[in-house]
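for the recovery benchmark. tokens below, seq after
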């Protein structure tokens, strides 16, 4: 499926330091609230259609910024997100950066947020809803997002590990929707995500060990 890429907003500086790439489903509306939270010196690229990996790679190819910030459309940014990211880029320009994650909705979702923090901080395995950010040239050296139907974010992180790229926290949190958990059931959805993660992580971990 063809991906439609739209430069939703040009940056107030040329070239921009950051390009924000937002993947969208074919009929998904533009995330006006998210875009409004982004400062004027950031370029905003919307990539619509295809698989998420195709959309992310197409958006990255069109971006002009020195750093690519991949943000999902349902992500909510706190007041300190942008400044925390700027500081993290100054501190670790050659790292794959991620935010901690929290969920909206019922209190039980705090367990998922804690699990995401443990997975990403301890194991250095953040996922795409943690607003990954990476230097554009380094992203291209890694080969971009793998062309898979799902789990492209997970596989990009493993590519970074195998290439010796540090995977580090920004030091701030973003919030994402718990809609899928509410719709499909918390226990069932949590168990499914855990099983998929383990299934995908096992061969990547073994490949990483063999390459050490």
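predicted aa per position
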């Amino acid at each position: 499926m063809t991906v439609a890429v739209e430069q939703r907003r040009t940056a107030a500086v040329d070239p921009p330091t950051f390009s924000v790439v937002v993947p969208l489903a074919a009929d998904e509306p533009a995330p006006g609230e998210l875009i409004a939270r982004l400062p004027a010196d950031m370029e905003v690229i919307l990539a619509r259609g295809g698989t998420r990996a195709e959309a992310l790679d197409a958006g990255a190819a069109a971006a002009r910024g020195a750093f690519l910030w991949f943000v999902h459309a349902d992500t909510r940014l706190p007041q300190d997100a942008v400044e925390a990211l700027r500081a993290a880029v100054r501190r670790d320009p050659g790292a794959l950066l991620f935010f901690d994650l929290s969920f909206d909705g019922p209190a039980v979702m705090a367990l998922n947020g804690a699990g995401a923090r443990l997975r990403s901080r301890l194991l250095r395995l953040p996922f795409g809803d943690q607003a990954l950010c990476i230097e554009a040239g380094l992203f291209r050296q890694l080969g971009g997002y793998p062309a898979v139907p799902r789990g492209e974010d997970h596989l990009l992180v493993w590519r970074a590990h195998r290439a010796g790229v540090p995977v580090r926290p920004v030091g701030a949190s973003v919030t994402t929707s718990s809609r899928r958990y509410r719709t499909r059931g918390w226990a069932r959805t949590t168990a499914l995500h855990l099983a998929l993660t383990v299934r995908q992580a096992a061969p990547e971990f073994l490949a990483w060990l063999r390459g050490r």
